[in-house]
Amino acid sequence: MHTYDPKKVLISLGSHSVAGYSDSTFVTIEPHGDGTAKKVGADGEVIRTVSHDKTATITLTLLQSSLTVAFCQAMYDKDQSTGEGFFPILIKDLKGGLVFAAQDAWVVNSPGREFAKEDSDREIEIATGEATWGGEG
Q1: Which of 40, 49, 50, 134 stands 20 to 30 A from 15 (CA)?
Q2: How far apart are CA 137 and CA 135, in angstroms?
Q3: What is the C-alpha to C-alpha distance for residues 85 and 11, in angstroms, rounded to an integer?
Q4: Per-residue pLDDT at 136
Q5: Which pLDDT score, from 0 to 100, does residue 137 have?
Q6: C-alpha distances in Å from residue 32, one per residue of 45, 124, 133
């Protein structure tokens, strides 16, 4: 039997600990590449191709007031002005082990903004270099 506890999912962007998770889906990790693809010839012969693209895109969904939104904006601004907005990313589920890690990650674009009568979530897209997947994730 396993227990999932969202408070046990820790995300770090360099030395910054992500806080202010949305109350719904707060992190999505999407792999790039084709994984293992196949092609079938006219005579039925099958060939497989293994993709070596180990990069990914992470989407963080955070509360409007999260300090991580400001951190990501600052890293994006730094990357735009100096090209040095890289940081390592680690996503770990303390109940299930390492979920995801990459030595090089960066904020893709300035976090979008929305203002309304009620507070709203902010989505931040982060791209990575070569990544490692593990655990039960």
Answers
A1: 134
A2: 6
A3: 18
A4: 55
A5: 45
A6: 27, 17, 13
What DSSP string describes 20-62? -B-SS--EEEEE-S-SEEEEE-TTS-EEEEE-----EEEEEEE
Q: Where are the domains of the chain?
A: 6-133
Class of domain 6-133: mainly beta
- What sign has the CA pseudo-torsion 130, 57, 102, 3? negative
What residue type is assigned to position 99 of the chain?
Answer: V
Given this model, what pLDDT does residue 135 score?
62
pTM: 0.87
Measure the CA dihedral 15/88/4/24, to 10°. 90
Burial (CB count <10 Å: 0-12, 13-18, 19+), residue 107: buried
Give pLDDT, residue 83.
96
Strand pairing category for 97-107 and 121-128: antiparallel
Q: Give the chain's length.
A: 137
Residue ranges in the chain modelled with pLDDT below 70: 135-137
- Phi and psi at residue 5, in whole multiples of 5°? -135, 110
